[in-house]
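Same chain as my last thread, 401 residues:
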Amino acid sequence: MHSVRYDYHRSKNIVLLLLLPVLLLWTAPAQAYKHLERPDIPGLVVEPDDAIQRLTAKSAALIEAGTGKVIYERNMNERRYPASTTKIMTLIIALERGNLDDEVTISSNAEGMEGSTLWLERGDKVTLRELLRGMMMHSGNDAAVAVAEHIAGSVPEFARLMTQRAHELGAVDTNFATSCGLPDPDHYTTAHDMALIAAHGYSLPEFEDIVSTKEATFDWVHDDTHMLRNENQLLWLYDGSNGVKTGYTDAAGRCLVSAARRNGIQLVAVVLDSVFMWNDSMELLDYGFANVSAHEAVRQGETVSYAHVRSGKTSSLPLQAAQTLMVPDISEQETKPVERVVELDGDIEAPVRQGDVVGRLILRQDGRDIASTELLAARDVDQKSFFHELGKLWQQIWSVV
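reply #2:
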């Protein structure tokens, strides 16, 4: 157990002092940033045709999450350290392989992690869901290790799963050696890879809810308030912001994977080794929303297909879209046709009730699934009975007579 417990109230003044340089960076330099054309930063090279000259990040990428299309990039395939943005992949593996209601017991290995922590202590028991939320809000390295050990038995095995899944998602220039993001020569990624990884996250249940939580209270937080506050300031500063994760080490510099949704458009922006990561990220998102529009491809309640119903009084069932689906159009990029794909959960058998979920509608563009929604039964279909069949036979005989 820790000999000194974290005292929130005693630390308020210390935290304010630590935040003072950040506040200064956010005011005077941020004002200067607005008038900056091409920043004079050691090691930063800005090409003449770069669409956002004043960006201070050495690597950056902006994509539309559904299609994966790149809207802006600067050295997006250059290998860099991801710092704690690593935890986005940790979250994804946990969501895809774990049971969020599982109780996780904190090990001595997790308790002793260096860097940012949630002040977890050996023997603490926390549900996986709460552990993931705390990990993403306050960048807990101890939580990331606990998650890895719970899912895979060890950090190295969990890192192997992270790398394997990243490559499956197209992030082939990425290799993970840790679940938390502390520096390691074999732990690297690219801005484009991190954008692809985060974009995939938004297709998973609970991902958005976890990465967009601003504040939360947990019994296991060792101070009187039991409260955590998200370190991602864009959740307060940027309209539509819904994620995702900050990161910093001396080796990686300031890193931020950010995201925002407006009018059915989900953007993901990545800045690695940035001087003004908040400004850079907002600049990227503004650029994206200025260059991406969306049109309605499917309307909520629209009948999109018909399905056969076995043993029903009627054999044909109209299927309706549960939600409106929007398709993005990116300026100066070719828009390819969108295919509607209907996937049923299996054979549909009567009785069926209006509103029953019977499958999914997927919008597919250029071989990639870009949006989906549930398919609902548009009406009731009762099961046919012996007397129903006898009545139909009688009607047929009577019509002949």
